[in-house]
Amino acid sequence: MSVSEFKNITYAWMILSLVIFILLFKITAPYGRHTRKGWGPTISNTLGWMMMEAASPLAFAFFFLQGGEKSLVNWIFFGMWMGHYFNRSIIYPLRIPGKSKRMPLLICVSAIFFNVMNGFLNGCFLGTFKPDYDNSWLTDVRFLSGVALFITGFIINFNSDNILFHLRKNSAKGEYKIPSGGLFKWVSCPNYLGEIIEWSGWALAIWSLPGLSFALWTAANLLPRALKHHAWYRANFKDYPLTKAIIPGIL
């Protein structure tokens, strides 16, 4: 594959993210609290999360390992990606409350495609088109700021997930309650905010079109869902105290 072909694929993928962003304001993906009938066969929620999240590190690793020798910086990026997805594909699914819950198979398959594409673009970029980041990149302000954002976003996401897990675990029937603590003091979906910050940091640290495309896709998926979550809370809890969905004081 030539550089121009790779760029064209990446641009097309970025344009598609904008289309999906608009579409998700019209259609709410039917999983989690928004699960509903009429979306075809279903599978175990835990299995579904494992399958769809594992697709990304597998694709990323496959394409990353193509080509020649990689620099230290490239291996650091490899570790960042794998660290995130070790949590998302193994730790997170095993901790989800309500093991009897199910998700539509269609959602799982769609997410696998999404994750394979992002794994391919970023893995191929680091493995084939830019396998030799110079070590001077380790002191570049873009790398340092990006890694700081990536770690901050991961911590926000992980901590927010912990709050949600404990809230559901301590519920007598596993019903939803109003979360509190952490950034839940200010927004309904700090877990989504953390993930957007995380992949924005990745885009800054890697400073590439594939990195930017993943940040755009993350925002395109999670911003509309955060607004739907926020509306759900306000509809189901008359005393719901928050006025913002995902960005404190703004949105």
List the helices and strands and how they pair.
Layout: H1 3-23, E1 42-44, H2 45-64, H3 72-95, E2 102-104, H4 105-129, H5 141-169, H6 190-206, H7 209-236
Antiparallel strand pairs: 1-2
Textual characterization of the structure:
The relative contact order is 0.14. Helix 1 packs parallel to helix 7, helix 5 runs antiparallel to helix 6 and helix 6 runs antiparallel to helix 7. By secondary structure, the protein is mainly α.
Provide a short characterization of the protein structure:
The chain is mainly α and 251 residues long. The protein has helices at 3-23, 45-64, 72-95, 105-129, 141-169, 190-206, 209-236; strands spanning 42-44, 102-104.
Q: Helix coverage percent of residues?
A: 55-70%
N- to C-terminal separation?
41 Å
Biggest beta sheet summary: 2 strands, antiparallel
Structural class per helix/strand content?
mainly alpha
Strand/helix succession: HEHHEHHHH
Mean pLDDT: 91
Strand order of the largest sheet: 1-2
Number of strands: 2
Q: Number of DSSP helices?
A: 7
**Low-confidence runs of at least 5 consecutive residues:** none
Number of domains: 1
Shape: globular
Descriptors for this entry?
single chain; 251 residues; mainly alpha; 7 helices; 65% helix; globular
